[in-house]
Write a structure and sequence with these properties.
The structure holds 2 protein chains of 2 kinds.
Chain A: E1 8-9, E2 12-13, E3 21-22, H1 30-39, H2 43-56, E4 61-62, H3 91-99, H4 107-116, E5 122-126, E6 129-136, E7 141-151, E8 154-162, E9 168-177, E10 182-190, E11 196-205, E12 210-218, E13 222-231, E14 237-246, E15 251-260, E16 266-275, E17 280-289, E18 296-306, E19 312-321, E20 326-336, H5 339-347, H6 352-363, H7 365-370, H8 375-390
Parallel strand pairs in A: 5-7, 6-8, 7-9, 8-10, 9-11, 10-12, 11-13, 12-14, 13-15, 14-16, 15-17, 16-18, 17-19, 18-20
Antiparallel strand pairs in A: 1-2, 3-4
Chain B: E1 22-23, H1 30-39, H2 44-59, E2 81-82, H3 96-104, H4 107-112, E3 118-122, E4 125-129, H5 133-137, E5 141-144, H6 145-151, H7 153-159, H8 170-178, E6 183-187, E7 197-202, E8 209-210, E9 213-218, E10 223-231, E11 239-241, E12 244-249, E13 254-262, E14 267-270, E15 272-277, E16 282-289, E17 294-297, E18 300-303, E19 309-318, E20 323-326, E21 329-332, E22 338-347, E23 352-361, E24 369-378, E25 384-393, E26 399-407, H9 411-419, H10 424-440, H11 445-463
Parallel strand pairs in B: 3-7, 6-9, 7-10, 8-11, 9-12, 10-13, 11-14, 12-15, 13-16, 14-17, 15-18, 16-19, 17-20, 18-21, 19-22, 20-23, 21-23, 22-24, 23-25, 24-26
Antiparallel strand pairs in B: 1-2, 3-4, 5-6
The chains are: A alpha/beta, B alpha/beta.
């Protein structure tokens, strides 16, 4: 298993924080496993579920410091016959499940998806150009397990999920980007302000890959997003763009990590978060440059816009460097919409509300420019921003 | 071009001959703690604090982050050694063996520079102290901690381990149980001490802990600069340094605290430093960490009063077999508070520097400003350099900026300087000197000269 944080140097090891875990009164167990196994027709997957269950049942749920899971209750499990194209998983896809084995936000949540997923897709692209739009239907419980394989081609994958009611979503997506592939992955989380979302995206990148990841988290009671990219080959470029809005007393905990093993790779992590009310956004970044990863260029930038006195932004941008022939940097800014800017715009004829809205849209301007999506998604994005800046 | 740099620590690789007169049994028991307290003729409250700390030490877990201390064998660390010398008031009275140690560490030069007071700590007790009469007249109390506890028990009690209680972490508890030596500095209101006060700590017995406690109280409107330096002869068995510094900066006062740490490489340096700053006060930490095998040190400032401010400027250097985990903490609790963190680190010859910092802006700290800047220089490819700054901004009406970079000296830079007539080693040390300049420029001349010499020696030995 690929650990999220590795702090070792020669024979020296750092003492790492160990998250405490608790066993919930109600956890998924053998009954739920039996239920889903009955519906599965793919023996590779059934065996995978059984194997991972052995590890799952031994683990408790994490007690995190920055996101409160105290009142968390696992919802009633439900599953239908329509498990999605993950049922078509072949040996190659199965190997991806085996190989891309990361610790994730917490091992428990990775295994939760591995064992109990009730939805999932398997996409394999080779020497072709494909675009997919996956809309996750509203449901109280969505547990996803997705596998993507691409080589020598182009893939654009948009995942969109939205809910009106309180829902629970736990998702793991594993992507293998092989030689000469170009990939754009867009995740749009518009879950309701009472929902819990735990999203894990793990990517292995080989030689000469061009990858862009857009991770949008607009509200949700608890929005946990964990993206980890492993550079196994040389000459690849990966950019992660994160955009988040948070409000009420809700929390987003976003983690973006890159681990460089190969040579001459470039990685960028860029996060923009706007927070109001008593909301909180936590953005963590890890750039881990291993020995031998020569000529790596790694950069990380986190920008916050705190829109109320009680809004909170935590950021932990870390750089771990084992190789000296590299360029690594990170930067953070915390901004506010200050009276002077508002005043300036009011002298130019805007009302106070318009000025405020204008400044928020300005902060996210690059998002609106970068994502040229289907008309209705662009509208969805804009109306979310409108709602956020209105009240 | 050669990248390898060799650390030559022969400068401190000597063994002094002074013999301790009292040596506590290895291992920590209630009996030992009571003995220490009895021996030092302490008031009851101090004995109780030691015993309570021992209990906490025995119950509390090891720190859950930072350097690996699993090889630190507490049973082998002797808690207290009474020095073989009687207290001296002038340089002539200090025994020859001890002078020999001091001389190698540059103390006589510092003395010649007539810095205002020298509290030199040999083993666990102050053996040499020289305070100018002028300051005594100003009402400044500058005493070794044991004497202060006996002479001003109520005053010391008001401050002792109030900022860092024994429950803070395991090594704070250990410190509370077996602290020994250190300085008590009390500056009355509106007194501005015109020159830096200096204390030089040493430890020189095999397997012995060094647990000095320093308290500085700067009353309203006062100003003081304090210099702490430390180094240790080299031994083969483990040494532990778990000192503590508590600084109280009252309204409008200014305190500058400078440290140059150069413990020998078998030392675990697990030190705690904290300052509390009231309205309009200013706290400055200037730190150079060059020695020890393993260090965990995070000087912290709590900006409690409106308009309080603080800076923390540091250089951390890790060479062969060194793992230094350092960082600054700034905690803003009041409006209009300002802080600046500037951290630089150098790693070479397999050394590991780890920056771990915290910037916290509390809910009531509106209109505050903070900047954090960390830069790391890796001088070869055997070393490791990590940066982990934590920022918790819990108020929307603030200005916060942060930047960090990890890099090396590029061949182009060296080439350019060589075309201007410098040798390779001159070019490298020129760049490294420039890199550490923010700390060096704050230091008194003799420290700056010593530091530059150290850098030149390191670079030259790597090229030659």
């Amino acid at each position: 298993m690929e650990k999220t944080i590795i702090l070792e140097h020669g024979s020296e090891k750092m003492v790492l924080w160990e998250t405490p875990h608790v066993f919930l009164k109600k956890d998924f167990g053998e009954d739920e496993l039996r239920k889903v196994l009955k519906l599965s027709r793919n023996s590779l997957i059934s065996n995978w579920r059984k194997k991972r269950f052995e590890e799952y049942k031994k683990l408790g749920f994490p007690v995190w410091k920055r996101v409160d899971f105290k009142d968390f209750v696992l919802p009633e499990y439900s599953v239908t016959e329509d498990l999605g194209t993950i049922e078509d998983l072949d040996k190659k896809g199965y190997q991806i499940l085996e190989d891309i084995d990361f610790e994730g936000p917490d091992r428990k949540f990775v295994l939760l998806s591995d064992v109990f997923f009730n939805k999932g897709f398997y996409i394999s692209v080779e020497n072709e150009r494909k675009e997919y739009f996956v809309e996750i239907p509203e449901n109280d419980v969505v547990i996803e397990n997705n596998v993507v394989s691409i080589s020598e081609g182009f893939l654009k994958l948009i995942r969109f999920f939205k809910s009106e009611n309180s829902s629970f979503r736990n998702s793991v997506t594993r992507v293998l980007a092989e030689e000469n592939s170009k990939v754009v992955l867009i995740t749009l989380n518009f879950l309701s302000p009472s929902s819990t979302n735990i999203e894990s995206l793990f990517v292995d990148v080989k030689n000469n890959v061009d990858l862009e990841i857009y991770d949008l988290n607009f509200c949700g009671k608890r929005s946990i997003s964990h993206v980890f990219v492993r550079f196994l080959g040389d000459d690849s470029k990966v950019k992660i763009f994160s955009y988040s809005l948070q409000r009420n007393k809700n929390v987003s905990d976003l983690f973006y990590g890159m681990r460089f093993y190969g040579k001459n790779n470039e990685g960028l992590i860029s996060g923009k978060s706007a927070v109001k009310d008593e909301g909180k956004v936590v953005m963590r970044g890890v750039l881990d440059i291993r020995k031998g990863a020569k000529d790596t260029v790694a950069k990380e930038q986190a920008d916050f816009l705190l829109l109320s006195k009680r809004a909170m932004g935590d950021t932990i941008p870390s750089i771990f460097v084992d190789e000296n022939e590299v360029t690594a940097s990170h930067g953070v800014t915390f901004g506010k919409i200050d009276e002077e800017s508002i005043y300036y715009m009011m002298t130019r004829g805007f009302t106070k509300e318009e000025a405020r809205k204008f400044l928020i849209f300005g902060f996210f301007n690059d998002l609106l420019e970068k994502i040229h999506m289907e008309e209705n998604l662009g509208d969805e994005l804009k109306s979310s921003l409108q709602r956020f800046s209105n009240t | 071009m050669k990248d390898k740099l060799i650390i030559d620590d022969t400068k401190f690789g000597f063994i002094p001959r002074a013999k301790p007169v009292y040596k506590a049994e290895p291992g920590l028991t209630r009996k030992i703690i009571e003995e220490i307290s009895y021996f030092k003729e302490e008031p009851d409250w101090m004995r109780e604090l030691r015993l309570k700390s021992l209990q906490i030490y025995n119950e509390i877990h090891e720190p859950r982050f930072g350097v690996d201390v699993s090889n630190l064998d507490m049973s082998r660390i002797v808690a207290y050694i009474k020095p073989g010398a009687l207290k001296a008031t002038s340089w002539e009275d200090v025994p020859g063996e001890i002078k020999e140690v001091f001389e190698k560490l540059g103390i006589p030069e510092a003395e010649r520079k007539a810095l205002s007071g020298v509290g030199a700590q040999y083993d666990s007790e102050i053996v040499y102290r020289n305070i100018q009469r002028k300051m005594e007249k100003l009402g400044v109390i500058f005493l070794d901690m044991e004497s202060a506890v006996r002479k001003y028990p109520d005053l010391v009690r008001r401050y002792f381990m109030k900022l860092v209680p024994p429950t803070d972490h395991k090594y704070a508890a250990l410190h509370g149980a077996i602290w020994s030596g250190g300085t008590f500095l009390y500056v009355p209101a509106n007194v501005k001490i015109p020159m830096p006060l200096q204390a030089y700590f040493l430890m020189s017995s095999p397997g012995m802990g060094q647990f000095e406690h320093t308290i500085i109280v700067a009353e309203e409107g006062s100003e003081v600069t304090f210099i702490e330096g430390c180094s240790a002869p080299r031994y083969n068995i483990l040494n532990l340094h778990a000192g503590m510094v508590e600084i109280y900066v009252e309204r409008g006062a200014k305190v500058k605290y400078m440290t140059i740490q150069n413990w020998s490489k078998n030392t675990y340096n697990l030190n705690t430093k904290r300052a509390l700053v009231e309205e309009g006060g200013f706290m400055s930490w200037i730190s150079g960490s060059f020695g020890s095998g393993k260090t965990m040190l995070y000087p912290a400032t709590i900006l409690k009063g409106k308009g309080a401010s603080s800076e923390s400027i540091s250089i951390t250097y890790a060479g062969e077999k060194q793992h230094l985990d350092t960082g600054s903490k700034m905690i803003h609790l009041a409006p209009h508070t300002n802080s600046v963190i500037q951290a630089r680190s150098i790693s070479m010859k397999g050394g590991w520097t780890f920056y771990r910092g915290l910037l916290k802006i509390g809910k009531n700290a509106e209109k505050s400003k903070a900047t954090v800047s960390c830069t790391a220089l890796m001088l070869d490819n055997e070393s490791k350099s990590d940066t982990l700054p934590i920022m918790e901004i819990h108020n929307g009406e603030v200005d916060v900026g942060h930047e960090a970079r990890v890099g090396r000296i590029s061949e182009e830079q060296i080439f350019y300087l060589m075309t201007r007539g410098l040798s390779e080693s001159e070019a490298r040390s020129f760049i490294v000197k420039g890199f550490i300049e923010p700390v060096v420029k704050e230091l008194p001349l003799e420290y700056a000269v010593e530091l530059y010499k150290f850098i030149e020696m390191e670079i030259e030995s790597s090229i030659g």
